[in-house]
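To the wet lab folks,

You asked to see what we're planning to order before we commit. Fair enough. Below is the target structure as tokens, and below that is the sequence we designed to fit it. If anything looks off to you, flag it before the synthesis order goes out.
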């Protein structure tokens, strides 16, 4: 078969359907249980005090409500591209679809880039190396190229590695819970802190809970990435609903137990602003346990999992939107033998390499917190749009059975997401809006370039529409 034949859209091979229920569940759990809970527990406690478990529960409720909208859409339209695809089908406005695609892709790539740098830093710390910032940068870039190779090799290999990494990162959280319960059973805990609200002086309880929920929501995101794997899932309309709810529920239970153990064992003052809060929890509960030596490696695998899953999501998103004509056709190319979207994988990796280099040059150490808040800000805005879109798309019936959300849930989800986005109600830092605004500006520029590049195609379509052939 000639290469010219392979490049034609009709001859493009389909993605391989390799994900069954268990692999999909581990994909979702692995995506949610990322670096957020390892890094943000102390910052959430700084906002609300000992009731740090409350924001995680609120974040879970908002995520679960929004998940019903995603489930109706992914079972109705089981294709890659997720939110951008649904917006395109609902409104058919190129600018809106492109911007949604860009926002979701940016959140995934930026998270993967930060995770890649964190992987390098944990590797250096775990082995006690002294390589400097340049050495960490080279390790981070090399790690991202390894992710590219795994992603390119195939979805089966990628998800199998995801299973291993998910089990490792889950083991770290279970370790915190088990040691925490052991300390609690031995009387080394103060449960009065678990129900104590301690808010900053400049915030009331509602605003403090909103700010903490905005942070905690970063730890809950990830379930939405799974819809981009719809074309690689076996019977997606049937298995997605129960698997997504199971994954969300499991993650919520883990988060609540971890946060309760943390605030019961460690005073709030020691948790607030702590960059390694879970290490402090275990050191306090079991001083002789070698957590300082073990946790860097657990964290290394945890962030590696986040990077792999986010890069898988971003590449499938670009592939799906290329098939819909929103992005250039070359991004929809599938490797004939591996049956993976190789062009989208290479493109997203190139962006990630540039971001890793940029982040590594930043001398400040608070990039992860700002990046996490910005990621949740962008995704909450997308979730608000998706909750409205599911109602609009009910005017487009399909010829197969699919999940249907109770109508009140998308409405409630849209209101909750907007509430957590607006500066007056969310309690977010101004830096998050500045970064989000910059990303959106870049997206608008890229949209304009794509729009101009597709000019001849638009004119041809308009000519056919205005001058139909004679009957």
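Sequence we intend to order:
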């Amino acid at each position: 078969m000639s290469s010219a034949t392979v490049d034609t859209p009709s001859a493009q091979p389909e993605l391989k359907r390799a994900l069954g229920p268990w692999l999909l569940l581990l994909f979702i759990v692995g995506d949610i249980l990322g670096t957020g809970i390892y890094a943000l527990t102390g910052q959430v406690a700084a906002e609300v005090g000992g009731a740090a478990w409350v924001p995680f529960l609120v974040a879970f409720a908002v995520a679960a409500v929004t998940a019903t909208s995603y489930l109706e859409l992914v079972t109705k339209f089981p294709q890659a591209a997720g939110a951008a695809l649904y917006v395109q089908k609902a409104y058919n406005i190129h600018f809106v679809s492109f911007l949604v695609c860009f926002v979701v892709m940016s959140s995934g790539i930026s998270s993967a880039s930060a995770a890649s740098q964190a992987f390098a830093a944990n590797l250096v710390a775990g082995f006690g190396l002294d390589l400097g910032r340049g050495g960490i940068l080279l390790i981070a870039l090399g790690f991202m190229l390894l992710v590219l190779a795994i992603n390119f090799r195939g979805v089966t290999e990628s998800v199998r590695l995801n299973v291993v990494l998910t089990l490792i990162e889950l083991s770290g959280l279970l370790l915190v819970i088990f040691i925490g319960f052991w300390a609690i059973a031995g009387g080394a805990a103060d449960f009065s802190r678990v129900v104590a609200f301690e808010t900053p002086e400049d915030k009331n309880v509602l605003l403090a809970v909103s700010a903490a929920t905005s942070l905690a929501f970063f730890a809950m995101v990830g379930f939405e990435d799974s819809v981009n794997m719809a074309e690689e899932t076996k019977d997606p309309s049937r298995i997605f609903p129960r698997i997504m709810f199971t994954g969300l529920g499991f993650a919520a239970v883990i988060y609540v137990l971890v946060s309760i153990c943390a605030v019961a064992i460690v005073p709030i003052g020691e948790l607030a602003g702590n960059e390694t809060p879970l290490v402090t929890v275990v050191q306090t509960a079991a001083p002789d346990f070698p957590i300082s030596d073990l946790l860097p490696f657990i964290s290394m695998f945890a962030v590696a999992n986040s990077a792999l899953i986010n890069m898988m999501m971003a590449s499938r998103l670009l592939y799906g939107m290329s098939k819909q004509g929103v992005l250039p056709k070359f991004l929809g190319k599938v490797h004939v033998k591996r049956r993976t979207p190789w062009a989208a994988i290479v493109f997203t990796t190139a962006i990630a390499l540039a971001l890793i280099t940029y982040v590594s040059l930043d001398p400040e150490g608070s990039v992860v917190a700002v990046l996490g808040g910005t990621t949740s800000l962008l995704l909450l805005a997308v979730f608000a749009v998706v909750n409205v879109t599911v109602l609009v798309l009910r005017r487009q019936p399909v010829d197969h059975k699919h999940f249907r959300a109770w109508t009140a849930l998308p409405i409630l989800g849209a209101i909750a997401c907007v509430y957590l986005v607006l500066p007056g109600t969310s309690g977010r830092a101004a830096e998050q809006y500045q970064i989000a605004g910059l990303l959106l500006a870049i997206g608008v520029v890229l949209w304009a370039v794509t729009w101009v590049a597709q000019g001849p195609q638009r004119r041809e379509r308009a000519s056919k529409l205005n001058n139909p052939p004679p009957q």
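Structural context that might help your review: DSSP finds 19 helices and no strands in the chain. The mean pLDDT is 80.

Thanks,
Computational group
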